[in-house]
Write a structure and sequence with these properties.
Layout: E1 6-7, H1 11-21, E2 35-40, E3 62-67, E4 70-76, H2 77-85, H3 105-143
Parallel strand pairs: 1-4
Antiparallel strand pairs: 2-3, 3-4
Region (Disordered): 127-154
Biased composition (Basic and acidic residues): 129-143
């Protein structure tokens, strides 16, 4: 039988778990309640983006919370970091907690559109700098006494 443990997706769930485990709201001295954690997975990735309840989606790092050596809950490590600062990744805007069904698609779309716009601006700036470098190089070559054929010395 597959082991079923709670997936923590909100700060409320995390606070409730603290009460259940009797570690206190600040999680101070959890070892005194025989609470420990282990981390499983292969990489740290996006917070709040997995919309699955499948345990260990994409093998992202997940924190498994144990009491008396038995797993009781798990949380995506990136989610835990985002909850700690109460923001969504990349936007810096406070969003509170996440329930798994309240994804603001418009906000995500705007974030990616802004990122694309910044990438286009960066590319345009790089192209401008490259053109300026070519112009400067041509001007310097024209002035050089051993300029290649085809360049007119001033």
């Amino acid at each position: 039988m597959k082991e079923e443990i709670t997936q923590i997706r909100t700060t409320k769930q995390l606070k409730d778990l603290a009460k259940t485990l009797k570690v206190g709201a600040d999680w101070h001295e959890p070892d005194e309640q025989e609470v420990e954690v282990k981390v499983e997975g292969s990489h740290l990735d996006n917070a709040f983006m997995e919309l699955t309840t499948e345990r260990w989606p994409n093998r992202e790092f997940n924190v498994i919370i144990l009491q008396d050596k038995k797993p009781v809950a798990w949380i995506n490590l990136a989610n835990l970091f985002a909850m700690a600062v109460d923001t969504w990744p990349d936007t810096g805007e406070p969003k509170g907690t996440f329930t798994g069904h309240e994804v603001n698609i418009r906000s995500i779309r705007e974030t990616y559109l802004n990122r694309i716009e910044r990438n286009i601006e960066d590319a345009e700036n790089s192209l401008t700098h490259a053109k300026e470098a070519v112009t400067t190089t041509r001007e310097e070559l024209r002035k050089h006494p051993n300029a290649p054929e085809g360049f007119v010395r001033e």
